[in-house]
Each structure stands twice: as C-alpha cells, then as structure tokens.
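Quick question about two entries, pasted in order.
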Amino acid sequence: MAYEYTVIAAPDRGEKSKTTRTAANRYALALASELNRMAADGWDYVRAETLPSEERSGLTGRATVYHNVLVFRRSKVARQGEAVARQPQPEYPVSASPVRNPEPDPATPAAAAPQKSDHAEPAASAVPAPNGEAAVPPAPRDNDQAPR
C-alpha cells in the first residue's frame, strides 16, 4: 500500500484552558488539538521525532539545533478511491441477483421405501467377524423353508 507523508512542527507551548492548570496538561491539550486537526483532514499520526538541524550562529559560526516534529501519513489509495466513487455505476450489477436457497430433496414414497420383513434376523449377523473376514449369514431355519 502506498502512503504519502507530511511532517509538522510539534507545538512549542501549551494552550490555556479553564480545565487545564499545569504546564504538562496545557501542552497535552495543544498536542491533542494538532492531532485532531490533522485527523480531520484524513492524516494518521505515525510518531514524534527529534531531529538535528545545523543552523547559522552569528556571522561565521554554525550550531546544531534539535527540532521536535510530528509525522503523519495517509493512504494514496483512499484518496484515489474518492474519484472512483464518483464514476458511474452499472444500473443492474451482477451481484444484485438474489441467491436461491437449495430445494429440499423430495420425500420417498412409502411404496418405494424398504419394507420390514416378517422374520427378524439375529443382530449378530449384521456384525462382521472379529478376525476381519466377512460374516457368514446364518443357515435357514426349518420354519423359513417352503412346505414339502
């Protein structure tokens, strides 16, 4: 993501207010008002820095002075997004069509459903053999055979 940055000088003095009595609270109020002013324009606070600057002192001398600055940034994409929002939009976007719920499976008719037999099989025949071999169905009983 691409950002653009801006740097402003940190406040040198605090702001007077009826609610602030100490110098630290006055300075905090001045700093907060600067942060809020920049945030209103879409800038995000990044950090405060103390940076050296070499300045002239007298006719031929030079001195190093330190400046306190506040660093802000904002996304370039967000600013370009404002122009994109003004472009004409399609009247009927593809995503506007409603999604249909899946249809439930039809109920199986009673005639096609498996029927329970008159003769119940023993429960042991449905369980596979413990040694991993296929279970052998039980031998037919005398009453299951056709009459002679």
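Here is the second entry:
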Amino acid sequence: MLQSDIAKIMSLFSLTLVSTLFLVGSVGGKPNGLTLWLIHRDSPDSPFFQSSLTCKKEKTGKFVSQSNHRASYLSNVSSNSVHPQIVRPQVDIQSFSYIVKVGIGTFKATPTYKEYYLEMDTGSTLSWMQCEGCTRCFKQTPGPFPKNSSKSFRPILCEDGLCRPKICDGKYCSYSVRYLDGSYTYGILAKETFCFNSNTSKIEKVESLIFGCGKKNNIRFLDQNTNKVAGIIGLGWGQFSFVTQIHSVSDGRFSYCFPVINQYTRRPRQRIPMTYLRFGADIPQKRGLSSTTLKRIENQSQYHLDLRGISLNRRKLNIDAAVFALRRTGHRGGCIIDNSGTIYTRIIKPAYVILRRELEKHFSRFSNLRRFRGNSQLGVNFCYERQKPEGFENLPSITFHFKGLNADLVVQSEGCFEVVDKYHSPNNREYFCLAMAPSDVNSVIGAHQQTNQRFIYDMKNNRLFFHPEVCSKNA
C-alpha cells in the first residue's frame, strides 16, 4: 500500500473519531431535577456548525495526542480541593467533549444575563471563565465577562472561611490553573448567578455559584479567530463542583448516554442523534443496572474505578489484576473514567499487549484480512484492510471487568473499533482500527468506549451505575 494511501485512510479515521457535542441549555426538569440538551458540533443546530468541518480538517490527528496528554494529566494531577494548584492538559479543538451554554450575571438589559459557552469537564472541580479586565486574554466571542457591570457578582475575600489555605490576590481569594504544555489561567474566586432556560420559558437560576474569574489566561480554545468558548464548567469531585453546588437539584447525581457517532450517522440527510445531560430526579429510573465503586483518591477531582480484568468476545484474558492497581508512588496505575479529553480508551501497557496479541489470534482466522500499521503519529496502529465491506459485523466486543457483582462494561464493536468503508477510502477498500491505545501511565475509559451505555454518577453514595442503552432514543 502506498504511504499516501495510508495517510489518507488515517486522515479519514481521524475525521470519523471526533465526537464533540455541545450542551446548549435546559430543556426541562422535575422540581428536583435538571435536564440539559446536547447537540453534536456537526449538527445544523450547533453554534459552531459553519466552521466545524474546517476546524476538524485543520486539526486532523490531534485526538490521539490529546488523549495522551489527558492520560498523563490524570495520573499527575495534584489535590483539587478548595483553592488548588490545578493541573490540566492542553486545551484545543480535541480537548473537550461537551460545551454548556449558560446565562451568567445580572444586568440592566433583556435578557438580564450574558450568555457564554463553557467546556464541560468531569475531571475538574472548579468552574472558571475569562473576565473583563484580564491582563492576558485569549480571543473569544462574545468578549470576556463584564464582572463590574453585574449586580450579582461578589468576589470572595481572603478572610472568608472558603479561602483556606489562603491564596490571595490583594484582598481577594485567588485560584491558579496550569496546563501540562505550560498554558494557564489565573484569577480570583467569586460568586455569581448562573441561569438556564426551561421548557416552560422560565429562567431557572442558580444563585451564588462559586467560580473562577480569569485575569491572566494563556490558553488556546478552538481557532483563535472564531473561538466561542469562555472557560470551564467542572463536574468532578469537590466542594466547588457544579454538581455539588446545585445539590438541591442534583442530589449529588448526574447522568449521560452518548450516542454512537461514526461515518454512518454522519451521512447526508441522516440527522445526528441528540442526547441529554440529566441531574437528580430527571435521571431515568432503570432496573438491573450494573454498578461499581466510584473512588476519590487523595482529594483529586477525577473519578477512579477499580478495574480487575478484560475479556475479548466474553472470554476473559489472562491478565494479572495487579497490573491495573493504583501505585501510590508517583500516582501511577489505576483506572479513571473520563469523557472530557480522552476520546480513546488508554490501557496500561502490559494489559494492552495481551489484548492486542489475542486480537491478532482472533483476526488470523479470517482469510480476507490484511494487516497494515496505520500511522504511528496518530497512535492508531492496530489496523486491518479487508476486501469485502462488512462495517462493524464480525468485529469482536471487549469487556472491562470492574470490582462488584456483574460489574462488567461490555463495549460492542461500534465502541471498540473505527471503520472507513470503501466509499470513503482512497482505493475502494474497507479498513478498521482498534480505537484503543497503550499507556505507560494508567488506564482511562474514554468517551468513544462509553457510547450506547447509560452512566449514572452517584457522588453521595460513591457508586457508578451503568447499563446498555440505545442512546440515540431520547437519551
């Protein structure tokens, strides 16, 4: 196969694999619940629709690089409690999975709030956004939040009980967020009113929400000339988590169900399925849910799981459970579930080597398959070419076994592999690649492997519930 053909095929893979969605407002909710509508970035409903394809082509291949940065971050993050020195990975077009559109502040205007998009992050506690008067600013539309004009903006003072240990900027409590690539945001902590639209046209308000008001921000969100992202909304563990701060609505619980997004769901005249982020009483009641322990390690904001093993087509592989264990020295090992920056699952290398070897044995039984190495720069290099188009048929499932009774996350072939059919390939052949990669650091269950599964995070009871579900059907 020509090297140029391989490059074209891997480019098609990268365009297929990005499944960025946008959260654009509340669409309903019970008295003690909240439901937010998610829109895929390639949908005509997306505020980024005009530039989405251009951006993806310009950023081809960065999804794997981002997942690598994310895996490294999730193993080296420091304490993320009241006023953390937070460490997060590089932010670019592939670094986020969801954007939330919120109304912020109280102004003498109609509407009385300013609307902004914030990146949703299950791996961070603190929500923050760039504020007017910043001395170092990244480009965004609309401009930074005009805090001085908002009647409800209240900076937190250093003597406030929330500011411990005391990290101050003058008389105000401050925060600091630093990224692995050297980018950062720094500012003060404040309280502000956040607003959401409801299905009754009523504005639901969350008053006195604590967030970070960015003063010095050296970060790249999307394309610098068209960026509409103003900051982060954090859903991780911690006192300042959005989930924790809206406890009267969330009861410490949130849920999502990611639809499968691939070349078939992206075809013309086929609308990309919608889905929802649900809190509290709005979470669907299901029977027969699998569950496992949801861990918080040393006040970190990430959600840790106790991974015990892996199966291929329901046959458990001979992997010592010890390879998945968390090693206290250096905060390495262990397993994290992440949908904010890890598109592909990362598997700790000793386990990945065994999985790959068993996959090679499995595919060796098919005479119509031919191996090719793909593109090492993309990190997706376990790939096959096949003559007869089959889509996801005859591709195996992979199961992750977690601590607990029947706590098995069965990932069907659509979540395990990516396929480029003959109509999109440069030589009229079909190709597929394993949508997972090895890691020297830890294991991370990525967003692609979470498709067609209902996940419910219960922070109060330290449990993660999950169950197979067709997420394109009113999820």
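Reply: The radius of gyration is 22 Å. The chain has a mean pLDDT of 78. Hope that helps.
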